[in-house]
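Many introductory courses stop at the sequence. We go one step further.
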Amino acid sequence: MRYFTIPCLLSGLILSCTGPTKVEEATLSLREDSLKVLSLGRTAEWAINHNSMDTVIADYLQTQDAFFVINGYRMDGFDKINEAFQKDRKGLKIHLTDDKVIIHPNSAIHLASFDQIVITPEGDTIPSKGVWTSFYQKINGTWKLLGVHESLHKAESAQ
């Protein structure tokens, strides 16, 4: 038994020292991609709160394929999205309350719940809650935002 155990232990040690397997490499790559997409979503949160709309749209795919949907209203094309973000997103404060990423080698979905406060030009605040779903595509090794779905509803405290 001792003669069998030592070679098995040695072969296991040798195999474990040869580096990660293809499955381990793929899992590590997906984990890194998942963290990157999560970071992109959290960067968008920071940018909204600091009124940096150029940062918000920086990762958007700059083509007609890009889309943004908010409460059923859909905007198609990067130029329309950019124009809307530059005009309509000022006075907005957002806080992600829960988020996660569903990852695939060349696509990802960032799901998030959030609380937000809209500050009107008159200084009034309108609280709401919502969810967003961001769709990413990996193009030439870089994650680009293809589209966003956002649904809002009144905050429970505002009802």
